[in-house]
Amino acid sequence: MTKDQTRETPNQSLVASPKVDEAMSALMTEARLAARWSDLSPDVRAAHHRILRAYIADGAPPNISEFSTEIRGELSRRDLVHIRDGKIALAYPFSTAVTDFAVRAAGVEMHAICAIDALGVAAMIQHETKVTCLCPVCRAPMALTIAADGLTMTNVTDPTARVWTGVMEVGSCAADSQCTSMRMFCSPEHLEVWRSDRPGMRGFDLTLEEGVQLGAEIFRAFLREPAEPGPEAVDT
Ligand SMILES: [Zn+2]
């Protein structure tokens, strides 16, 4: 695969690992993709992009007063942006509140909702990011740099880290369900410790590289302009 193909084509056929392909299908079902992206109006898409770009530029969302009630409702119904206490609380992959998943790009610090979201930011913004996640068991920080291609990893502090991607019923807000089970662990042992407290939980135990691939697959098309193939054009 050439870098050009990677950049221009967001479909899952580029995924190197079959496990990532399987995880992608489990997480991003056709129904969920359709609920998010089908018939997205230009106004709603522009508002969505405006919100994401504010997080990227400032590490914080814009004021909700910039957006009409109708647009806010539409973004929320599509599980793209959620407003709490009169403020934008999250817009995947970003969280307004500080989380265990920090992303630094072009001198701006952002926080992601979960590990997969943090790992997908580089692909979405086509810019190098430094991702730092905390192990939920021992709170040890793990860092890596992801290149602007969204896939190439360098400066990996914990090459044996694992990324757990839980598969849960997603209600109206993935951040409250799915995302709570997407974590990065300092070691296979600490993933096992965490999983032993959650018997029966479904999910995928991914390497760091697979986690980056999955994040890139999910977020690569989020900031595409309408003239380009958007997330709704992803082949499934
Ligand atoms: Zn740990």
UniProtKB/TrEMBL annotation:
Q: Note the coiled coil stretches, chain numbering.
A: none
The protein in question is named Alkylmercury lyase family protein
Q: Which domain of life is it from?
A: Bacteria
Q: Which InterPro entries match?
A: MerB (IPR004927), MerB_lyase_sf (IPR053717)
Recorded GO molecular functions are: lyase activity
Query: What keywords are assigned to this protein?
Result: Lyase
Q: By its UniProt entry, which Gene3D superfamilies does this protein fall under? A: 3.30.450.410
Please name one Pfam family that this protein belongs to: MerB
Question: SUPFAM superfamilies from the entry?
Answer: NosL/MerB-like (SSF160387)
